[in-house]
Structure formats: structure tokens, C-alpha cells
Design a protein that fits this description.
Layout: E1 8-12, H1 16-32, E2 36-41, H2 48-51, E3 56-59, H3 69-86, E4 90-94, H4 96-109, E5 113-117, H5 121-125, H6 128-141, E6 147-150, H7 153-161, E7 169-171, E8 195-199, H8 208-221, E9 226-230, H9 238-246, E10 251-252, H10 260-263, E11 268-271, H11 280-287, E12 291-295, E13 310-313, H12 318-329, H13 333-350, H14 353-365
Parallel strand pairs: 1-2, 1-4, 2-3, 4-5, 5-6, 6-7, 8-9, 8-11, 9-10, 11-12, 12-13
Helix pairs in contact: 1-14, 3-4, 4-6, 8-12, 11-13
Amino acid sequence: MTKTGKDTVVLIGNHYIVIYNFRKELIQSLIRQGYRVVVLLPCTEEAEKIRELGCELVDVPVDRRGMNPLKDGKLFWTYRKILKKIAPSCVLTYTIKPNIYGGFACRLLKIPYVCTVTGLGKGIEGGGIVRSVLFGMYKIALKRVEKVFFQNADNQALFEARNIGRKKYELVRGSGVNLDTYALKPFPKETEPVRFIFVARIARIKGIDVFLEMVESIKKKYPAVEFHMLGFWEEDYKERIMQLHEQGIIQYHGMQSDVVSYLEKCHCLVHPSQSEGMSNSCLEAAATGRAIIASDIPGCRECVDDEVSGYLHKLDDSRDLIEKIEKFIGLPYNEKKRMGENGRKKMEKEFSRKYVVDAYMKEVKNHTKGMERNDGLV
């Protein structure tokens, strides 16, 4: 290993989307200011886009489903081995397993680390013994954390009540939204059919059951209304969704990198999620000038001004979601359009990604002043 004189910052995530889609601007800012950036995550073909930003990429597979002592133990030792080799000045972790097992590794190696709670996940939301275990693991992992960023106040309150993370908390507006990438788009013409879009992982926690129940009901009453879906499979919904697609009830487009081109053809995003840190789908759709109909939960309600930029519906309540969809369909064209414009104004005022990047850069600089670190990877 050779000395470079550069401080090294490591980012740890569980999927390339977590880093590339939502932290690209942070990586670019770090590199511009002279930091060496290393990213640890499962390396897929799509993940190569992260390397093209000018950082280094290390393949660390992460099983995002459930808890497996053998796999999770291996993940911890992998993080520990790599971080010991790199000797970074600061580590930034995102999502549950990187937060916990990356936190364990940083704590043992005495490396400054900053954790971001991007949501609680099914384990904690579901309650019971798994919830208690995860909170206990978080408490151990974050015992020496430098800062815990939360994306909504409800998540922060849960950690604070359990004294997790040394109460070194800061609330950020999710990952923010790049207002240039997600620019305001012309609203669909008045003569076009009303189009709704679902953009999320195909998983129960994203409200897919409620969404599909609503779609089947609405299409019987409003056959001209269109429902579009974007997202990758995470659970066993493929057969049902493809059947609905073949019947023309929904139009499923798979996983798409260019979400904007689909958003601009639609009037409204539907996001009946059960759990969010801060919904990036809602932020991105609102930034393009689309109305939002989303669950009235932490991480969604912050994105929507009810009756102004969209509607909030009761959690896991398909009847209430159907009512909100019908209410939107019945709005005059100009009111639909005004809802989208109000959403864009809200994003400009409250959710610019620049604010979020500035918060992370400030924290990184607290741990990288005048320090020299070793170069080289495993």
C-alpha cells in the first residue's frame, strides 16, 4: 500500500440503486473535493455505473431477505476484513444490514461511522421477537456511531425512546430529489386517458396487494383509465401481475432506468406502501409535476400536502384507496394539473437533494481534517 495523502470515505449499501440513484451527487461532491471514495455493495452489471463516477467498487453480496446467522455472520467478517484493509477516515452506511453489520465492524475497528436509517423494514414494522432482536442489534452496532441520519421524525422517535445511537441524531429530507434530473414535465393533454403509475419493488411491504385490488375494481368501472407499473420482482407476484398485464388491466414495464419518460406520460403516482424512510418514488414523481396518492404513513405523508398536491389514504385500506382514485379521476383537468404543479413547488422548497448532500458533506469533513490514509484494496 502507498500513501496518497487522500482521505478515504467508504459507502456501504445493499443494492446499486441505494447508492447510484440516491447518493450519486454525494459521491460526485466527495470526489470533487479530493476524497478517495470506495463503495461496498453487491456488484451487478448495473452497479458498474457507480465505478464510472470515479470511485472504487468492491463486491460484497448482501442477502436482503430475512435473517440468517451464517450469512449475516459472514457479511460482518467481510465488512471487517475490507475496512481493516482500506482504513478509511469515515464510513457511511445505508439500509438495515449495512447499518448493523457495517456498524459492528466500524465499532470494533474504531473507525468513525455515520448511519442512515432509510426505513425500519418488515422485521421491525412486524413487531414481535424479530423487532426486539433488531432493535437490540442496532443498539450494539450504533454504540459509538458519530451520527444517525433519519428520513422521518417517527423513525427517529423510536430510536430515541430506546436510547439507540447515542442520541446523535439529525433529520434529513430523505435522499432528497435532483430537481434537474427530475425536471418539471408538461402535463398530459386533456384529451388523453387518465393514467396512474406504480413505481416500487414488487413486494407486499410496498402495498402491492392493495394496489392490485384497487386496480381490478377501478378498471371495471372506468375501463379507459390506465394503470402502469415499474419495478423489479422481490416476492412471488409474477404470475398474477403478468396475468393482469395480458388481460390489459395493467401495463407492466419491468425495471426501468429512465423512470422520467414513464412519469411524464402519467397524471398521478399511486404509492400504497406499508413502510418508508422517505419515499423516493413520491419525491421523484412530485418533482416532475405529478399528483401523488400515497399511504398516510411516515415517509409518505411528508411528501404530500393532502388535497393540495395529492391525497393520503388509510394504510392497507383498498376501499379508501379506491375512493381517492375515483376522487382524482373526477377532478377537472386544471385541478389535476394544479395538484402536480403544487407538488413541484413543494419539492423545490423542501426536498432539493443539495440540502441532503450538504448535510453529509458537513459530517464527513468533521472526520477527515488533515488525515492521511493508506491506498489499496483487497
